[in-house]
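PROTOCOL LOG
Step 1. Enter all chains and additional molecules of the complex.
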Amino acid sequence: MSGIAETPEPPYVAVVFTSLRTDGDNGYAAMSARMEELAAQQPGYLGIEAARDGLGITVSYWADEESARAWKDVAAHVVAQQRGRDTWYSDYRVRVATVTRDYGPLS
Amino acid sequence: MSGIAETPEPPYVAVVFTSLRTDGDNGYAAMSARMEELAAQQPGYLGIEAARDGLGITVSYWADEESARAWKDVAAHVVAQQRGRDTWYSDYRVRVATVTRDYGPLS
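Step 2. Run joint prediction.
Step 3. Record the structure below.
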């Protein structure tokens, strides 16, 4: 389990990846861990948050649109090298968004 | 479990609520279900997605900033009427973002 990402003051970019899994692991857990490792090494990476209980939601945070786009290409490459999205996901949606404000219990 | 929200063409607004729970239910499940029901009745509501496994992520989608802000006030009111955030959450972060593009397996 990941925690709450420590992101800087907005604006920054959030990539919301919502997915429904296929049955069986089929290497998914290993791929998923590798993806999080790889993301953290990319330029502009700010953090990642993930949860799954049937529906999966992964939100990655990026300094700007350019680094979010570059990550998309890296992630697509990793998936393509392995089994392809159809093996793991029965459906998914990616939403790229600009965070304009944020707050928590202390702000 | 909710499914993938059927949102319209961007732009629209995503409110990403990431949280860590306190121990015990303390009425949380009932409050959470009530919140999702209430959200769906608000003007500008487009959909909601939620997952929790330790970390919880709820993303609600809204037609514009105005409806997202109005929902914030309604949600805060519901929480205040009940036990308050401190009962349910040890930490949380709310991020309000403008979705600029999205895509799935078929687009």
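Step 4. Note key features.
Chain B has a mean pLDDT of 90.
The first strand of chain B starts at residue 12 and ends at 21.
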